[in-house]
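Appendix B, Record 12. Input sequence as logged:
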Amino acid sequence: MRYARRDRVDDPIRKRLGETVYELVGARPQLGSTMHHSLAEIVIPPGGRSQAHTHRQSEETYYILSGAGTLRIDNTPYAAAAGDAFLIEPGEKHEIVNEQDKDLVFLAVSAPAWDPADSMFA
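Logged structural output:
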């Protein structure tokens, strides 16, 4: 059993374009040593974005909790707002941009569990 809360994550991943990733469940021992999936809460501040990337093998699902933005998958833009879910399949280039005036917050579920070596940046 693993219990996690975003406000108890000691080492969030802070990306250069503004994205902060709070890994809650994952492959690393301190995250539960999962193999089949991982879970992260991601916060992108106003004007921030993720870096465009693909995954070799991971399927990823984004579920928007609050805020709004634009998710680009293979250069096609999709409006993303609270309550929306998006499946991103292996090999699909994707990035998400916060063009609003409040934080964009979403969950990312990866299967198998997220591994930095599986991400290829554009």
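The chain has one domain: 12-121.
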